[in-house]
UniProtKB/TrEMBL annotation:
Coiled coil (UniProt feature): none
Membrane as UniProt keyword: yes
Membrane topology: Multi-pass membrane protein
InterPro entries recorded: TM7S3/TM198-like_dom, TM7SF3
The organism of origin for this protein: Apaloderma vittatum (Bar-tailed trogon)
GO cellular component terms attached to this protein's record: plasma membrane
Keyword Transmembrane appears in the UniProt entry: yes
Keywords per UniProt: Membrane, Transmembrane, Transmembrane helix
Annotated protein name in UniProt: Transmembrane 7 superfamily member 3
Residue ranges crossing the lipid bilayer per the database entry: 268-285, 292-312, 318-339, 346-366, 378-398, 410-432, 457-475
Length: 542
């Protein structure tokens, strides 16, 4: 009692699938010059089963949200049939399409040796909070109906599959949009060769000598579609694999799902940091100690979070609380160091490093960071450190300008990080991708491309506006002031010596601190004592 779905080659059809009644998808009147038909079906979050038979078997079916099958046509064959059903009891909205290829077009997954299907055009995707891993089976050369397929392992010359090339494409869904219809409408743009080239972003090209797996940085909550085009340079023909999508999060989890990614502890931490950063953006140089505390907090919190994540297995919330404590301690330590030693050079070096860290992270946030040369950790960290060190070196002769720039730019970026806890923005990955690389030994293999859409342009404008306003206000306010406050410890020491030697100074006659505390305690004690009776008292007679 299967429902019937009549399809046309190259045309999408939306279809509701259920668990009990499979849908029979049929294509008729297939042209004789078509040798291969790739049929595929896509759903947002519920797995569907696609098979050649009504009773699926491991070697003749596939299960997932993005699955497809390859039908190798026999001579005179003009009809193809597949069967679809969902694994959920409730109806599942999906979209299906069948794409034809000719005898000179390569066959995606035609040399599969790893997965269950004999010819497997699917892309297999796994994700974590850190990275996304896609892998696929190698393709084979095309051939005519009724002929034997070319051997996958007979030589490596230009007459074998080894001449094939694989272009990996990436496509971002609209930000902050997890709707089902948006996915189904956009996945159509990544299903056929010409549409993929027109809409996708080409990330890399693999040869047959390369492993057919690629890593990308994970973007939880952001929809991404991946696909691979296999190209035959001899015939200049191409074919597309089955597109696969992910949001790098779960729709089904009760907590930390795709709709509530940021934890409460994260929101509290970065909101508090944003308040301090906004103050430093406009008043950092005037309130010098507060600015030092802000910079010290950032340095101490970053290194402590890396250390505690590397060496312990504590939960995220516990690590974030301990990181906040370490950041406060680091900020107070930097302020205390300034008070005791008064080294402008040391403080400006730390402030410059924070600004240099952000500047270098921004450089590698651009497409420059995906160059193959930076996959090597030594090359990456030497280059990153050199760029970061440039900032304090370049501004060594003008520390006041360096401090104002650092407080304005870094302080305003703290506001952006807080915004990212409530609304998705790719700007958060300027520093997050660097943190991932520090914490994960294999993150260097991941491509870190991110979307940059309307939402990101608006938030980038907010960042630029805040930074420019903060720097301008501080430069105008501080232009007639001394560059930095005097050394606080020396000032306090000179003041103490002056009071101890100048008998005309009223402060010279102030008792020592110990005597003043003792006197205050006596007054406090007398407050609780009862009044003593004075003389004889008699009752009042009326």
């Amino acid at each position: 009692n299967a429902g019937l779905l009549e399809l046309s080659l190259g045309k999408f059809r939306n279809v509701l699938l259920n668990q009990t009644n499979p849908v029979e998808a049929v294509i008729r009147n297939i042209a004789s010059n078509v040798t291969v038909v790739i049929f595929q079906v896509h759903a947002q979050q519920s797995d569907v089963v696609i098979s050649f038979d009504k009773n699926p078997s491991v070697n003749s079916s596939g299960t997932g949200v993005d699955k497809g099958l390859v039908s190798i046509l026999r001579p005179q064959q003009s009809v193809c049939t597949w069967y679809l059903r969902s694994l959920d009891a409730s109806p599942v909205l999906s979209t299906a399409i069948s794409i034809p290829y000719m005898e000179k077009d390569p066959i995606p997954g035609g040399c599969n040796l790893e997965f269950d299907l004999e010819v497997d055009p699917n892309i297999y995707l796994d994700y974590t909070l850190v990275d996304i891993h896609i892998k696929f089976a190698p393709a084979n050369l095309g051939y005519s109906r009724g002929a034997n397929p070319p051997s996958c392992d007979s030589g490596t010359g230009q007459n074998s599959r080894w001449r094939l090339r694989y272009d990996v494409y990436q496509y971002f869904l609209p930000e902050n949009d997890l709707s089902e219809m948006i996915l189904l409408s956009h996945i159509r743009k990544m299903s056929e060769v010409q549409s993929i080239k027109a809409n996708g972003i080409k990330m890399l090209t693999l040869t047959t000598d390369d492993k057919t797996n690629v890593y990308f940085s994970s973007l939880p909550g952001q929809g991404v579609i991946y696909n691979v085009i296999v190209w035959d340079p001899l015939w200049n023909t191409s074919a597309a694999y089955i597109p696969v999508h992910t949001y790098a999060c779960s729709f089904a989890d009760l907590v930390d799902n795709c709709f509530s990614l940021s934890k409460l502890s994260t929101k509290v931490f970065f909101t508090a940091l944003a308040v301090l950063g906004l103050f430093a953006c406009f008043f950092g140089h005037r309130f010098w100690k507060t600015d030092l505390f802000f910079m010290g907090f950032i340095v101490a919190a970053f290194f402590f979070f890396v250390f505690i994540t590397r060496v312990t297995g504590l939960g995220y919330d516990v690590r974030l609380i301990l990181t906040a404590v370490a950041g406060i301690t680091g900020g107070l330590f930097l302020v205390a160091s300034w008070w005791r030693f008064g080294s402008i050079l040391l403080c400006m070096f730390i402030v410059g490093l924070v600004l240099g860290f952000l500047f270098s992270s921004t450089i590698f946030f651009t497409p420059l960071g995906d160059y193959r040369v930076f996959r090597d950790d030594v090359v990456f960290w030497v280059t990153f450190s050199s760029v970061a060190m440039m900032i304090p070196v370049l501004f060594v002769g003008c520390p006041r300008i360096l401090n104002i720039l650092a407080s304005g730019i870094v302080g305003s970026y703290a506001v952006i990080l807080a915004i990212a806890c409530y609304v998705y923005t790719s700007l958060a990955y300027i520093t997050l991708d660097l943190l991932r690389r520090v914490l994960n030994d294999y993150f260097s293999r991941a491509y870190t491309n991110v979307p940059f859409q309307t939402n990101d342009f608006i938030i980038l404008s907010v960042w630029i506006m805040l930074a420019l306003s903060g720097v301008t206000v501080q430069l105008r306010r501080e232009r007639s002031e001394v560059p930095f406050p005097p050394h606080p410890y020396l000032t306090w020491k000179r003041e103490r010596e002056r009071r101890s030697t100048n008998v005309l100074d009223p402060s010279h006659h102030i008792p020592p601190l110990r005597e003043r505390i003792h006197s205050k305690l006596l007054h406090f004690k007398e407050f609780f004592q009862k009044d003593q009776p004075a003389g004889e008292r008699t009752l009042l007679l009326l």
